[in-house]
Design a protein that fits this description.
Elements: H1 38-50, H2 54-66, H3 71-80, H4 88-100, H5 104-120
Helix pairs in contact: 1-2, 4-5
């Protein structure tokens, strides 16, 4: 689904179910219904930005970029970003992959982390 709201203005799940219709005791509720959509995260970022919560807005925009990245890849990136786990070249490779996946803000974050790790002697 491209937009998190239906014609009635209700927030929707990735499969299009109305958020207001979901119940945790519903046996038809699957794990795929629970993640926030990229569009919802971007809207939350706009709200955070308008409230002056710029760091939160940046985090939500990165989350929107990563919302469509497979979980195992996100966990690989998370592991690669731990101090002394990756070389500068390995982190740059992750940043390029993120750029190619349409996640430029997340790629910039990885590059920023690599620079900080280099300055602090935290690269592998």
């Amino acid at each position: 689904m491209g937009y998190p709201f239906g014609r009635d203005g209700d927030v929707r799940t990735p499969s299009g179910r109305r958020l207001a219709d979901l119940r945790l005791d519903d046996d038809s509720l699957t794990r795929e219904e629970l993640p926030a959509t990229p569009e919802t995260l971007r809207l939350q970022a706009e709200v955070a930005e308008s409230a002056g919560r710029t760091p939160l807005a940046r985090n939500l925009r990165r989350a929107a970029e990563l919302a469509t990245v497979p979980e195992d890849v996100v966990l690989e990136i998370y592991t690669a970003l731990r101090p002394r786990r990756s070389t500068a070249d390995e982190l740059e490779a992750w940043a390029r992959r993120l750029d190619e996946a349409g996640a430029p803000q997340s790629a910039a974050f990885v590059r920023e982390a690599a620079a900080v790790y280099a300055a602090r002697g935290l690269l592998a």
